[in-house]
Automatic annotation (TrEMBL):
<keyword id="KW-0813">Transport</keyword>
<feature type="transmembrane region" description="Helical">
    <location>
        <begin position="199"/>
        <end position="220"/>
    </location>
</feature>
<dbReference type="InterPro" id="IPR013099">
    <property type="entry name" value="K_chnl_dom"/>
</dbReference>
<dbReference type="InterPro" id="IPR003938">
    <property type="entry name" value="K_chnl_volt-dep_EAG/ELK/ERG"/>
</dbReference>
<feature type="domain" description="Potassium channel">
    <location>
        <begin position="151"/>
        <end position="223"/>
    </location>
</feature>
<feature type="transmembrane region" description="Helical">
    <location>
        <begin position="143"/>
        <end position="165"/>
    </location>
</feature>
<keyword id="KW-1133">Transmembrane helix</keyword>
<feature type="transmembrane region" description="Helical">
    <location>
        <begin position="90"/>
        <end position="113"/>
    </location>
</feature>
<keyword id="KW-0407">Ion channel</keyword>
<feature type="transmembrane region" description="Helical">
    <location>
        <begin position="57"/>
        <end position="78"/>
    </location>
</feature>
<keyword id="KW-0472">Membrane</keyword>
<dbReference type="GO" id="GO:0034220">
    <property type="term" value="P:monoatomic ion transmembrane transport"/>
</dbReference>
<keyword id="KW-0406">Ion transport</keyword>
<keyword id="KW-0812">Transmembrane</keyword>
<feature type="transmembrane region" description="Helical">
    <location>
        <begin position="29"/>
        <end position="50"/>
    </location>
</feature>
<dbReference type="Pfam" id="PF07885">
    <property type="entry name" value="Ion_trans_2"/>
</dbReference>
<protein>
    <submittedName>
        <fullName>Voltage-gated potassium channel</fullName>
    </submittedName>
</protein>
């Protein structure tokens, strides 16, 4: 084995330990990555308002791109199989976000899709192995995932409305107007003081109503739905059971669900 191969294996082992390990150093490392990720998401949400600052905005933009690029590269090395890693939809979302950061002048109109980083973060095992490891595969995880999907939807639609209609339609004068339109449409309140013009505006409004209501109902269901635990049945594979279940309701197999009580 050559020196290059040995160094490559050591680097992969190091990244794997940091991204997937359970040592205190690995957990601290992942907490640091998540804190930076949340700061980046805040930047994405505020980006439409910050772009007017010119040089400062682009410096932050390329700094975020550098961090995200290095993070994606490290995750690919830690995974060990780049082809399998690239098959994950979440990875492609992150790669598109990276493209909008590297080419902000050309892809700024798609910049609102950067907020999808919130969705990819909350739906990643990386997050739940770190911040949410106590709540992994619990009701808290289900509620958090549903809430993040709704929040991501709100800010993606807000960004799209802002980039497409602000300055072109008198009802949308700024980012807050776009957010106001999104929330009133999503909740089907429909005050009528801010509306989008033309056929495309009506179609977008209907899409916001249907998509937003669906996600909101999903959030309510995850809150009100009876609590289930994740425990694959060794016989039929059913994953969701009542916390005190003794037998699988699908096949009758005796279960031994771990319980802290």
């Amino acid at each position: 084995m050559t020196v290059e191969n040995t160094d490559g294996l050591r680097l992969r082992a190091r990244f794997r330990a940091l991204y997937h390990g359970a040592s205190p150093a690995a957990v601290r490392f992942r907490y640091g990555i998540i804190v930076i990720d949340l700061a980046i998401i805040a930047f994405f949400i505020a980006a439409p308002l910050m772009r007017r600052h010119g040089l400062t905005f682009y410096l932050i933009d390329y700094g975020v791109a550098a961090f995200l690029g290095l993070d994606l590269l490290a995750r690919a090395v830690a995974h060990g199989d780049p082809k399998a890693w690239l098959k994950k939809p979440i990875v492609w979302v992150d790669l598109f976000v990276l493209a909008t950061l590297l080419f902000p002048g050309w892809l700024f109109n798609f910049g609102f899709l950067r907020v999808l980083r919130l969705w990819t973060l909350i739906h990643s095992e990386f997050f739940w192995r770190t911040v949410g490891r106590r709540y992994d595969d619990t009701r808290v995880e289900q509620i958090t995932r549903a809430a993040s999907s709704l929040l991501t939807f709100v800010f993606v639609i807000t960004g799209f409305v802002y980039s497409s209609f602000a300055g072109r339609h008198q009802g949308i004068a700024g980012y807050v107007d776009a957010l106001y339109f999104t929330v009133t449409s999503l909740t089907t309140t429909g005050y009528g003081d801010v509306t989008l013009p033309g056929v495309w505006g009506k179609l977008l409004s209907m899409a916001v109503m249907l998509g937003g209501v669906s996600l909101f109902i999903g959030l309510i269901q995850s809150i009100l739905r009876p609590h289930k635990v994740t425990f694959p049945c060794p016989c039929c594979g059913l994953r969701r059971h009542d916390p005190d279940a003794v037998h699988c309701k699908a096949c009758g197999q005796v279960l031994n669900i771990p319980n802290d009580d």
